[in-house]
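Me: I'm a chemist; would you kindly supply a protein sequence with its structure tokens?

Assistant:
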Amino acid sequence: MTAVEPKVSCVFVCHDGAGRVLLARRGAGARDEPGTWDCGAGALEFGESFETAVAREVQEEYGVRPLGIEQIGVRNVLRGDPVDSHWVAVVFAVRVAPDGVTIGEPHKFDALDWFAPDALPEPLHSQCGETLGLFTAGARGHGGR
């Protein structure tokens, strides 16, 4: 039997610094859960720092450079029954300039929009709620981002 090891991802909640979060709707070509709204994410590449991975992924997915990156949590993501997917997700809050945001990966996403955390679209990706929970908990604890 081949050993399977967890993968590491950098998950990020992009925000405008004024309370809104950026979510992308997963398109027909997305790896899973097309039609759902989600935060950004990407795999950590060998030898890469978390911050470098986040900056690269934000640029690839949304076409902008981060103005600020803050680690806000870690999630152990087990999917399937039996488990067939295991990710260690390091979660970040990333401030970006709203006017520069664009869909950088149209094969994965078909819409982007800004939302207040208490007025989120539906349906959300199955992992998005817990990730946004880390963001909103951090915002409350720090008096906003």
Notes: The CA atoms of residues 2 and 42 lie 25 Å apart. Confidence is low (pLDDT under 50) at residues 141-145. Residues 128-141 form the longest helix (14 residues).
